[in-house]
């Protein structure tokens, strides 16, 4: 097929869906164009930016018709920042789109039949331009129930953690980081800036406030930047590998009010470190922990392996649903505490516990889900790869007087097969893997251990769907899926799925 558009063409197109990145999908003579900022149902004027074999990208110039789901994005830097992707969409429409996104993945990748999952036109459209093939609905037998996305009443200022990349700028100039460098070294009179990478780039743009971040985290980042600048601290420069401060990470306990500040540095020594610590403590009375993490590698990964306490505790404490958690700098802890409680309660409900069950919590982090489960189970076994997180998990069990949960550091796909050999027989296995989903070896082990129920908590609908297919082929049936909106205004979708043993294989 010849490509019907060229770069710089001005085209008119109807938007027929949203990609998983939140871009509008248009078609010109059958050719797919991705248009940032356009919404399904809109007719738009766009300028072609880039043309590839199968699809292209275009810039939204003007809306000819406007979707009823369109709202004015409240954040001033929304267009430049890559952090949020859906602020121009009404929140209720975001929730509908997230549910549909889950359904599309379950149908296309998981080959699952979804009950009542009819596309409302806001569904995701694939790059090749295929749309949902409508496996949904009442065709035959009961399918998977996908519930309405559980949203927030107040979907702003929900994050408990800020991770801010740091650069330099001339004191006189605002914005771009590069301005503060001369030949790779910070120029005189330059200051620290930090905020976000401009959409699709590694250029750091300074930011004072983020509408999805807790106000006190914004404040803490501002203070750390200001004091660092006053002390002449240099920022890490990706190009040259020089400079000191790479990231500032701040975490606040929503219940406890405790704050942790992490300075991620490209080097062990921080000049005038006492003055910096004193300044932070004076300006942030709730700070309970100031730590340094050393990362001297050329990498996008934020944290390095070495963490040392500069002042205060090694951890901060927070509470979820009456359970207290110690959280250290490198440990995973869900960023939206209000929705986390909803998610974990749903996971516990799906586990169907009566007080006697043996439960495995794979990818357990600091033992959050494990301890929720332990309140209603016989015995819980948690496994997690980050050793500090397992230390936290053990400490958290003791902290809450929970003695029926034990934890082990290691790969889930290695430790759980060994537990099987040791004779541990779970009634329920809960998994909560990172974006890439479960390791095949773990899925194989689940199929061998054959627990009555599997509860799958997922931050990525496509790997969820892939893994559900493996479990379905091994004899499990996916009963229901609950999408939970952990990340309002972004394209991220969390879900929890319940699978039961079907009694038959394949
Ligand atoms: N259930 C926890 C953590 C979920 S995030 C919570 O809700 O807080 C996923 C966790 O899996 C992270 O803590 C990560 O360190 C861990 N992880 C990643 N790959 C792993 C693997 N192969 N085996 C065990 N843990 C792993």
UniProtKB/TrEMBL annotation:
Gene3D superfamilies per UniProt: 2.40.50.1070, Nucleic acid-binding proteins, Vaccinia Virus protein VP39
Name of the protein this chain belongs to: 23S rRNA (Uracil-5-)-methyltransferase RumA
Source species: Paenibacillus abyssi
A biological-process GO annotation: rRNA base methylation
InterPro entries referenced in this protein's UniProt entry, alphabetically: MeTrfase_TrmA_AS, MeTrfase_TrmA_CS, NA-bd_OB-fold, SAM-dependent_MTases_sf, TRAM_dom, U5_MeTrfase_fam
Highest classification ranks of the organism: Bacteria, Bacillati, Bacillota, Bacilli, Bacillales
PANTHER family from the UniProt entry: RNA M5U METHYLTRANSFERASE, TRNA (URACIL(54)-C(5))-METHYLTRANSFERASE
Family as reported in the entry's similarity comment: Belongs to the class I-like SAM-binding methyltransferase superfamily. RNA M5U methyltransferase family.
Domain of life: Bacteria
One MF term in the entry's GO annotations: 4 iron, 4 sulfur cluster binding
Pfam families in UniProt: TRAM, tRNA_U5-meth_tr
Record carries keyword Metal-binding: yes
Active site: 459, 459 (nucleophile)
Domain (TRAM) ranges: 4-62
CDD domains per record: AdoMet_MTases
Residues engaged in binding S-adenosyl-L-methionine: 334, 363, 384, 432
Keywords: 4Fe-4S, Iron, Iron-sulfur, Metal-binding, Methyltransferase, S-adenosyl-L-methionine, Transferase
UniProt cross-references to NCBIfam families, sorted A to Z: rumA (TIGR00479)
């Amino acid at each position: 097929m010849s490509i019907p558009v060229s770069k710089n063409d001005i085209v008119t197109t109807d938007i027929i869906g949203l990609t998983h990145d939140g871009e509008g999908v248009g078609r010109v003579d059958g050719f797919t164009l991705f248009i940032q900022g356009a919404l399904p149902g809109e007719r738009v004027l766009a300028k072609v930016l880039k043309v590839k074999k199968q699809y292209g990208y275009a810039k939204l110039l003007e809306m000819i018709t406007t979707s009823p789901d369109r709202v004015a994005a409240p954040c001033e830097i929304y267009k430049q920042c890559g952090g949020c992707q859906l602020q121009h969409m009404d929140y209720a429409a975001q929730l509908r789109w997230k549910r549909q996104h889950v359904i599309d993945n379950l149908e296309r990748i998981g080959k699952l039949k979804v009950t009542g999952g009819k596309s409302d036109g806001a569904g995701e459209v694939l790059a090749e331009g295929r749309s949902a093939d409508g496996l949904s609905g009442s065709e035959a037998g009961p399918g998977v129930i996908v519930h309405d996305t559980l949203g927030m009443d107040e979907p702003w200022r929900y994050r408990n953690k800020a991770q801010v990349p740091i650069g330099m700028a001339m004191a006189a100039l605002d914005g771009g980081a590069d301005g503060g460098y001369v030949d790779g070294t910070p120029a005189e009179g330059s200051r620290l800036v930090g905020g976000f990478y401009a959409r699709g780039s590694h250029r750091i743009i300074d930011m004072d406030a983020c509408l999805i971040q807790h106000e006190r985290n914004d404040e803490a980042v501002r203070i750390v930047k200001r004091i660092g600048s006053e002390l002449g601290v240099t920022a890490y420069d990706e190009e040259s590998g020089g400079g000191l401060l790479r990231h500032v990470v701040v975490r606040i306990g929503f219940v406890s009010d405790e704050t942790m500040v992490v300075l991620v540095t490209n080097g062990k020594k921080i000049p005038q470190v006492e003055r910096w610590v004193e300044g932070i403590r004076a300006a942030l009375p709730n700070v309970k922990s100031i730590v340094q993490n050393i990362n001297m590698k050329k990498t996008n990964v934020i944290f390095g392996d070495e963490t040392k306490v500069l002042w205060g505790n090694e951890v901060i404490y927070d509470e979820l649903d009456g359970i207290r958690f110690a959280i250290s700098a490198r440990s995973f802890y869900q960023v939206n505490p209000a929705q986390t409680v909803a998610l974990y309660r749903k996971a516990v409900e799906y586990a169907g516990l009566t007080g006697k069950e043996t439960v495995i919590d794979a990818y357990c982090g600091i033992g959050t889900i494990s301890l929720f489960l332990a309140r209603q189970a016989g015995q819980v076994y948690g496994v997690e790869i980050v050793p500090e997180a397992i230390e936290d998990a053990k400490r958290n069990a003791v902290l809450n007087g929970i003695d029926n949960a034990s934890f082990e550091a290691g790969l889930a796909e290695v430790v759980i097969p060994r537990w099987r050999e040791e004779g541990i027989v779970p009634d329920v296995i809960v998994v909560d893997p990172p974006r890439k989903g479960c390791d095949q070896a773990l899925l194989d082990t689940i199929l061998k251990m054959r627990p009555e129920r599997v509860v799958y908590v997922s931050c990525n609908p496509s790997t969820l769907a892939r893994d559900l297919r493996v479990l379905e082929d091994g004899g499990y049936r996916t009963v229901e899926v609950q999408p939970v909106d952990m990340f309002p205004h972004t394209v991220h979708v969390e879900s929890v799925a319940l699978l039961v043993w079907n009694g038959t294989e394949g």
